[in-house]
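Notebook, p. 212. Picked up where the previous page left off. The plan for this session was modest: take the two constructs that came back from the sequencing core last week, fold each one, and keep the raw output in the notebook itself so nobody has to go hunting through shared drives later. Recording the first one now, exactly as returned: residue sequence, then the structure token string.
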Amino acid sequence: MIKKTGTCFAIMGYGVKTDYATGRLLDLDKTYKNIIKPAAEAVGLECKRADEIRHSGIIDVPMFNSLINADVVIADLSTNNSNAFYELGVRHALRPYTTIAISENKLKKPFDVDHTVIRQYEHLGKDIGYDETMRFRKELIDSIEYILSKPEIDSPVYTYLSGLKPPVYKCDADPLKLSRKDTLSTIIEAATNAMNGNNFDTAIALYKEAYDIDNNSEYIIQKLALSTYKNKHPNHVVALREAIKILKPLDPDSSTDPETLGLSGAIYKRLWEEENIIDSLDKSIYYYEKGFYIKNDYYNGINLAFLLNIRGSLQSGYESIADYVLANRVRAKVVDICDNLMKTDFENRSDQYWIAATLEEALFALGNPRYEGAKTISESLIKAGWERESTIKQIDKLKEYLAKSPLK
């Protein structure tokens, strides 16, 4: 194995991103931390991503510096990330060699990168299975070793403009180690830890600091809105309405981002619970419904069905019947979604309990005889007591609304 002192710069997003072509959420941090960074370090390269670079001013300065000076650049194009494609183009213009393009295997490759080799790996939603992680890490190690030992032109710019000479640029300071005390990555990590510990005041302060560094990040805006409404300060309603303001730059009404839609649905659902204003219930249904039909996922689906039952219980005649019928149709789709997820690498998923519990809830509401079996499975997957308490509470509420069904 080649041991070399050098640098590797990873072009990619950070956090959980939406693949708009398929509606899936992909955790790019897992790609970076479990595959890209270990592969680069295995061949002796210091690996950084833009959110890990210490900088004293605009993040673009060290980013461009890294694009020209890094010994190896790995560009993850998953989710058709426009920033990643732009940065890959900059790298191809600046350096003829040592650039590797990768993506998850459902990327619809744009025409302009038809001449670029894109190595592919498989995402399981937010997760990447252990076997796939190890397989692709090994493939990436082999690729890095090869391009370092035998540089060949991999830039289409230098392939087709054969007389072009690459520019030379030297910066006095190491672009990976400039003067900012904390990197965006460490700030977000600290904010996430605060969120997980229910320390929402700290999380909000940290996400605001992260937003000051990167105010175009949908991920940071979403997390800031989430921590704000969960904080319930100075009271729940005020916090929920503040979260709505925070999400406004993402334009939830026209957004096709399932994460933004699901978050908006959750906020208006809680506003409905606090104020019993039908407009909040209607908005919550709108966002969950849109998110479900874009993403075709169990989370948006099971919440949509539950809210349709609530609205149906408040209405009469055909409108009530329509909501209850639609709720059952959505749940039938949710059952299929959960069944398929439980057949495909289920053991490698981090959301096993919630898939099983969602299936349990859907089968209960449909009066399906498979319910008891699904309940047994979900009970066997409990990792924390609050998970089961949440499911029981949800089903108890559901009983109340099902008892008012006009379909009985």
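Okay, moving on. Second construct, recorded in the same format:
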Amino acid sequence: MSATAVDIAADVRAGRRSALDVVEVALAAIAARDGELNAFNTVTADQARAAAAGIDARVVAGEDVGPLAGVPVALKDNLCTRGVPTTCSSKILAGWKPPYDATVVGRLLAAGAIMVGKTNLDEFAMGSSTENSAFGPTRNPHDPTKVPGGSSGGSAAAVAAGFVPLSLGSDTGGSIRQPAALCGVVGLKPTYGRVSRYGLVAFASSLDQIGPFAATVADAAACYDAIAGWDAFDSTSIPEPLEPTSAALGRGVQGLRVGVVSEMTSDAMGIAPDVLARVREAADALAAAGATVTEVSIPACVYGLSAYYLIAPAEASSNLARFDGVRFGLRVDAPTTAEMQRATRTAGFGPEVKRRIMLGTYALSAGYYDAYYGKAQRVRRLILEDFERAYGEVDVLLSPTSPTTAFPLGAKTTDPLTMYLNDVCTIPSNLAGHPALSVPFGTGSDGLPVGVQLMGPALSEALLFQVGAVLEASRS
């Protein structure tokens, strides 16, 4: 879909274009190519047409239909949607249809957006390639032999393929930003607590955050403005009033201080030379636009991967205990309750989910809690303190988003550690709870997209969009 979300909404509100026509274009694009890419688990065609017809009727009646009027959106399939299957790409949730919408879903619909389907993901959002799905892998629209990144690979691919101008993903350790980089789209992980998690099927509750994918920075800002803000249903929601971020897009970077993170551009992090070259070019572009660019150190971020893969699995092992064959989803009958639960979880969970449950259970077990989980939480605090120290020197940080461009399907599935290293640059922001934005910035030596990452202190989303718009303009 070549038109931007901002343009579509303006045309629908003005009556220059019908929402139904826009939806038909999106559904036709999905029908034409999703058999190859497998970005969607469910396509809600009839529901989308009915919603579009309702918006068109409201436009004729002179009603305000919202800032995202008629914009087709795709939702990661771990976001609850009333009456629509929500599978988390897992066998264990087969047949489950939530009785309510996630807060972000309700806010998008209230803004006039139209859901066209639910997108594929690594099972329960655990992965970096969208290959750990009960529905098969998603493929990268730029090269279908390559992965789209993960865990929100379906949402990233849906935007990159032009199926929809906007989609939502969730980001626990990079699951929005890394696929955004590999698919050549914009992806935002907001400040923890800025976007409600109510209705998101939890992976790691202290790390999860919902955010947008978009083809442009302006579209990502418009989507963020629609979904962000306090929610009484989320106890971690930040009550501070939300200022629209779209107004910041034209401010430029004159006088801003940008820090290139030295640890994330070092050989030790395994950053590919072509990716590193794009980061240097992004720094030069910001300097040419009036920013002061320096190098900044975040020493503890090199321990982020180790801390994350103790904290996240520990929280996952607790959160996934609810899938027991009793209340919803898959049930494998057996003579006793314990046997039924064991059989259900054995059949229902895939290998990566089982791996993380076992790792998390071990990290929380008696005799190991302080040595592993407790120590990881102390490292998390060190990372936060290092970020806060850096933000005393600069306004925004710059780094690679992913160490490499998209890699071949199957290349890393047999080596979990190699797969986990894809999130080495994104995980620190999750541990700190700070916002981070991936912006497409050229291509690698293989012609595939490269994304650069902008990081800022808590509640600095408007600033990140401001800087991201300058990077975007420098490549146009």
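Notes on construct two before I forget. The chain has 15 helices and eleven strands.
Flagging for discussion at group meeting.
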